[in-house]
Design brief:
The protein is of the alpha+beta class and 249 residues long. The protein is built from seven helices and eleven strands. Helix 5 packs across helix 7 and helix 6 crosses helix 7. The radius of gyration is 19 Å and the shape is globular.
């Protein structure tokens, strides 16, 4: 009996890049956890942001079923990717298996994650500091990328994480970096929106910078752009963003 050919393609840098963009550009995702009472998978929807190293971050109520499940078993699976027009199975999606770490008030990552989450979801300011809400940082263990029919890939968790010694420095200076960039180039967000072919919207702003790239956001629209190489500091990020905004196509 002949062995069946593998449905998986060899994972290359193009697949890794697509997976990173899918995960980092998702404003929300479906999350699946294990119900502690029945053992059955339990799926829900969560708002999504990313930490400085690209790890997904969620903000949840301690009263929700998925929060109680994660407290008992930290294994979780995220599904990211928008269906778009036509056949929904023809559009790219990423399933990421993660280990959830609670990030409550007082945790050394809390303020950084809070700032980055609000940058992407400003309306969460209404409840983000309620005592019955907490963050989970979801460390990717492995992932499955389906980039359309006949284009399936397996990824390691490390393929989705930004391995850079500049992470902490860039996170600490993120707001200052964006402010300085906009002061030097007042039209930079409009130039980026045009260059990245973002949906037409009244006002775009830069958010979520990290060594691997940045996002621009306007209301419900968010566009992720990855750099060709990792930035080594805040000046390098400004330089990379300026080149993307103003270089000749």
């Amino acid at each position: 009996m002949k062995d069946q050919p593998s449905p998986l393609r060899e994972t290359d840098e193009e697949a890794r890049r697509l997976a990173r963009v899918l995960l980092r550009s998702a404003r929300y995702a479906a999350i699946a956890v294990l119900d502690p009472d029945t053992g059955f998978p339990f799926a829900s929807r969560v708002l999504l942001a990313t930490d400085i190293d690209g790890a997904p971050v969620i903000l949840v109520s301690k009263l929700s079923a998925h929060t109680k499940a994660l407290a008992r078993d930290p294994r979780a699976s995220l599904l990211a990717g928008e269906p778009g027009k036509g056949d929904p199975l023809a559009h790219s999606r990423l399933t990421t298996q993660c280990m959830a770490e609670p990030i409550e008030h007082g945790h050394r990552f809390h303020e950084r994650i809070r700032t980055r989450f609000l940058d992407r979801h400003p309306k969460a300011n209404l409840y983000i500091d309620f005592p019955d809400f907490l963050f989970f940082r979801l460390k990717p263990e492995q992932a499955s990328l389906n980039a359309g029919f006949g284009r399936a890939y397996h990824l390691d968790g490390g393929d989705l994480i930004i391995q850079s010694p500049a992470n902490e420095e860039i996170a600490a200076k993120a707001a200052e970096t964006v402010r300085d960039l906009v002061e030097r180039h007042p039209d930079v967000t409009e130039a980026l929106a045009a260059r990245l072919k973002a949906p037409k919207s009244a006002s775009w702003r830069i958010c979520g910078i990290d060594p691997a790239g940045f996002e621009i956001i306007s209301g419900d629209f968010l566009v992720r752009c990855e750099f060709e190489t990792l930035a080594v500091d805040s000046d390098h990020i400004c330089s990379n963003i300026s080149k993307i905004a103003y270089s000749i196509p």
